[in-house]
Design goal:
Distance between the termini: 24 Å
Order of helices and strands: EEEEHEHEH
Radius of gyration: 14 Å
Number of strands: 6
Length: about 130
């Protein structure tokens, strides 16, 4: 199984549509057997799904994700593990072990907040992480 994680500096990047890289993991018999970094070369939201398909990705681990991306990924047969944060390697190991909870629903709908240069902005209280 090939798994992709949105990736920056060892951590899960929290905005699918703007991820600077993916870390790809090859999983066999409940263990990671190979890993490497994939540069999506500036691909936009819709093109990212095509990039993942080219590499045979079967599952995506990410922070936030919007409904359009969830739909494209579902149509491509890629399982989504959304709302995850922290170490990309730890999340991939948890998926390999069968302990990562699958959340395949959009968790950023972009209603009620503005998007600035650096991301999705903030709600009234606390930070809001999301992606497309």
């Amino acid at each position: 199984m090939i798994v992709a994680a949105t990736y920056e500096n060892g951590q899960l990047f929290q905005h699918f549509g703007r991820t600077p890289a993916f870390k790809l993991y090859e999983i066999e018999d409940g263990a990671i057997v190979r890993a490497g970094i994939l540069d999506p070369e500036g691909a936009g939201h819709g093109a990212l799904v095509g990039v993942l398909m080219q590499y045979g990705v079967e599952a995506l681990i990410c922070g936030g994700i919007g409904p359009g991306a969830v739909n494209f990924l579902a149509q491509a047969g890629i399982e989504v593990y959304a709302g995850v944060s922290g170490s990309a390697d730890e999340a991939a190991a948890a998926l390999a072990a069968g302990t990562l909870e699958q959340v395949a629903e959009a968790n950023c709908d972009h209603h009620g907040h503005e998007h600035g240069e650096g991301g999705c902005g903030h709600h009234a209280e606390g930070e809001h992480h999301c992606c497309h």
